[in-house]
Amino acid sequence: MAGRRSLGREFGWLWAAFAVSSYGTGLGFGALPLIAVLVLHSGPTQVAALAAAGRAVGALLAVPLGPWVEFRHKRPVMVSMDLIRFAALMSIPAMFALGRLTFAQLLLVSVVVAAADIAFKAASGAYLKALVPSQDLLVANGRFESTTWTSTMVGPPLGGAAIGLFGPVTTVIADAVSYLLSALGIRAIGGTEPGPSRTGAPRLRAGDLLDGWRYILGHRTLRPLLLNSIVVNGLIMASGPLLAVLLLGPLGFTPWQYGLVFAAPCIGGLVGSRLAHPLAARFGQRRMMLLTGVLRAVWPIGLAFVGPGVPGMALIIFVQLGLVTCCGLFNPLLATYRLDHTEPDRVARTLSAWSISSSAAIAAMTALWGLLAAVTSPRTAIAAAGVLLLATPLLLPRRESAPGPEPAGAEEAVDRV
User: Fold this and answer.
1) pTM score, two decimals?
2) Closest C-alpha among 59, 51, 196 to residue 119
3) 284: how many CB neighbours lie within 10 A of its CB?
4) DSSP state for residue 406 in the 8-state scheme
5) pLDDT by residue (tens digit) across 180-226?
6) How far is CA 223 from CA 134, 337, 364, 404, in A?
7) In this model, does residue 41 exceed pLDDT 50?
8) Is 373 exposed, middle or buried (0-12, 13-18, 19+ CB in 10 A)?
9) How far apart are CA 57 and CA 413, in angstroms?
């Protein structure tokens, strides 16, 4: 099968590094808010601030990192970002053991990790484009996506059990160690990395910071895809905390039921990611991307009708299974399409701008939907997000754009600094 063919020893090490960090992240899912509640006895406002502010400030700090990453060798950057995340996370159990852990430290760690995540993704995307032939990019991205969903399905339940057995900072330690192992895996790739497109770069200018956004906004297909992605991801993520409040509060779900209804559907993400390559080969990559982009928008409205008990659990699993399957198909198709349609010397800046935009949008929409839920109700806010998601397919690109440079007029707009 095409999806099982070898992509080389170097990709094997990269995939192994990605897998170990993904499982570490799965084990540590929700660890910082949990520590804030169980150890520091923080209230809802502080927990919400930890989730939103960490992502927003981390995105802001990552703005200069895209141009900085672009003109440097990517593997050293990836290793550095892994080590930064390892050190930041390990500071939590260290201060916990000394009895000096504070909420301010949790907030600082969340900011540092968020910024390092963005820089790592920018470097790894650029490195993958140089490492894997264009015809194999979808296979590679499908493997990354399947690993993500597997770790999401397995990690949080195991993490919850580990916290119950060994204490609240256990999964933070596991997450930190996973980044250290990831750094070692990336170092093990070896070989000679292609040099950056420009070496000995002068000091960054203010205009360079916006280069990634200029490229995206000057591209007739990447522009609508970015807008679609940030709106869809923002609305889905903004509904998450409200659904937790609804299920664990008025509807009376127990914690294990809450975990089950979100862990079980992750099998759909695994299935979808494995089907992405064969379906794209049969029906066309762009056609499948647009189809799954439409289908993923129709599911979340069903969450507004969830009720208590077994029927409510069944409805959530059904809706989440459909949503996650469509996302598992869409995400590797989008990642591959984005790499194919981005010039090699602009990949890091483009991916950095994309991640920053997504993080900022998620933070803003999470805060806005929290206010909407306070004024109305969690169910009403969830319904509003679902209705708006039904309109997001209108943001998908209508026309194809060939990979490579844009026409002259668009290129001039992109290059303007």
Assistant:
1) 0.81
2) 59
3) 12
4) P
5) 999 999 999 987 777 666 544 456 566 667 888 999 999 888 999 99
6) 22, 13, 20, 15
7) yes
8) buried
9) 29
Structure tokens at 332: 């590797």
Chain segment 255-274, per-residue pLDDT in tens: 678 778 888 898 999 999 99
Give the burial string for 202-221 (b: 16+ CB within 10 Å, else e).
eeeeeebbbbbbbbbbbbbb
Q: Cβ distance 95 to 39 under 8 Å?
A: no
Task: Of 301, 287, 290, give the one whose Cα is nearest residue 389.
Answer: 301
Distances (CA, A) of 235 to 292, 369, 387: 17, 9, 10
C-beta neighbour count of 2 within 10 angstroms? 11
Q: What single-letter amino acid sits at 261? A: V
d(CA 25, CA 159): 10
- Do 216 and 343 form a contact (C-beta atoms < 8 A)? no
Nearest to 405 by CA among 326, 344, 323, 314: 344
Q: Which residue, 333, 317, 224, is CA-closest to 273?
A: 333
Residues 6+ apart with CB under 8 A from 148: 22, 269, 273
DSSP per-residue letters across 332-394: HHHHHHHHHTS-GGGHHHHHHHHHHHHHHHHHHHHHHHHHHHHHS-HHHHHHHHHHHHHHGGG
* Distant-in-sequence contacts of 280-283, Cβ < 8 A, 24+ apart: 280/138, 280/333, 281/2
Distance, in Å, from the CA atom of 375 to the CA atom of 380, rounded to the nearest integer, reads 10
- Do the Cβ atoms of 152 and 265 come closer than 8 Å? no
**What is the spatial distance between Cα 223 and Cα 211, in angstroms, rounded to a whole number?**
14
DSSP per-residue letters across 155-210 = HHHHHHHHHHHH-TTHHHHHHHHHHHHHHHHHHTT-S-PPPPSSSSPPPPPGGGGG
Tell the residue number behind the tokens 């990517």, with chain if given. 74
Task: Tell me the C-alpha distance between 260 and 254, whole Å.
Answer: 10
Q: Is the pLDDT reported for residue 404 higher than 50?
A: no
Contact call for residues 409 and 306 (beta carbons, < 8 A): no
Is the pLDDT confidence value at 45 over 70? no
**Residue 282 scores a pLDDT above 90:** yes
Whole-angstrom distance, CA of residue 34 vs CA of residue 32: 5
Closest C-alpha to 179, from 283, 81, 312, 302 = 81
Q: How far is CA 313 from CA 146, 165, 308, 317, in A?
A: 25, 27, 8, 6
Report how far apart, in Å, the C-alpha atoms of 16 and of each of 42, 137, 176, 271, 336 are.
37, 17, 16, 20, 20
